[in-house]
Design goal:
This protein has nine helices and seven strands, in the order E-H-E-H-H-H-E-H-E-H-E-E-H-H-E-H. By secondary structure, the protein is of the alpha/beta class. It has one domain: 3-Layer(aba) Sandwich (Rossmann fold), CATH 3.40.50.300. The chain has a five-stranded parallel β-sheet, sandwiched between helices. A two-stranded antiparallel ribbon has the order 5-6. Helix 2 packs across helix 3. The structure holds adenosine monophosphate (AMP).
């Protein structure tokens, strides 16, 4: 069977979640988004949520041990190809993931880096709106809802993510450059890295990713 396991890498707001959602649906893969899982845990007030809440509000990373435990759980019964969105975010997480995938004999096919410059990230994150009910994601500049800040899918009033404020955006970008960007070299050395320009039209980016997936 073809190997269809991927990591989507890139700064916050690069479009990892959006693209992972589209590609997973279209090609029957499982999307595992650690940010979504953590936000759900915070909303439900679980132990994990209580642990993660402060880090997320500050725009910092949740500790590696917690994240590795979470991803191990997510991969426990996986029976399809998967896309990891937002994991790994540190070299320690990447090493832990390697070990786990080796044990389970689930190799990665590619690590897709969505490349978007910082100025564009700040613009995008400031204009991002999400549906608190169904999780649909919009951008007031590039992908606005049909009716003023109302979800096209379920009609709920859209909100801003708590960490999409100017101060936290800056912190998250700092954290990305210091802690996550080293993964670019890590995966390049393993000959898994594929860099894709993340600034074009979403449809064009999807196509570029699909070329890699079916190469
Ligand atoms: P995201 O939705 O991917 O931007 O993630 C939102 C927040 O969740 C991040 O700013 C971190 O606080 C936390 N988070 C998500 N994934 C990870 C991860 N792999 N490692 C550490 N923290 C994470």
């Amino acid at each position: 069977m073809a190997i269809l396991n991927f990591v989507f890498l890139g700064p916050p707001g690069a479009g990892k979640g959006t693209q992972a959602e589209i590609i997973a649906k279209k090609h029957g893969l499982v999307k595992i988004s650690t940010g979504d899982i953590l936000r759900e845990a915070v909303k439900n007030g679980t132990e994990l949520g209580k642990l993660a809440d402060g880090y997320m509000k500050r725009g910092e990373l949740v500790p590696d041990e917690i994240m590795l435990g979470l991803i191990e759980e997510q991969l426990a019964n996986i029976d399809k190809g998967f896309i990891l969105d937002g994991f790994p975010r540190t070299v320690k997480q990447a090493e832990g993931l390697d070990e786990l995938l080796q044990k389970k004999q689930l190799p990665l096919k590619a690590v897709i880096l969505l490349d978007v410059p910082d100025e564009e990230i700040v613009k995008r994150l400031s204009a991002r709106r999400v549906c608190p009910n169904c999780g649909a994601v919009y951008n007031l500049l590039y992908n606005p809802p049909k009716n003023d800040e109302i979800c096209d899918v379920c009609g709920t009033k859209l909100v801003q993510r708590k960490d999409d404020n100017p101060e936290t955006i800056k912190r998250r970008l700092d954290v990305y450059h210091k802690q996550t960007a080293p993964l670019i070299d890590y995966y390049r050395a393993k000959e898994l890295l594929v860099k894709i320009d993340g600034t074009g039209k979403p449809e064009a980016i999807t196509e570029a990713i699909e070329e890699v997936i079916f190469k």
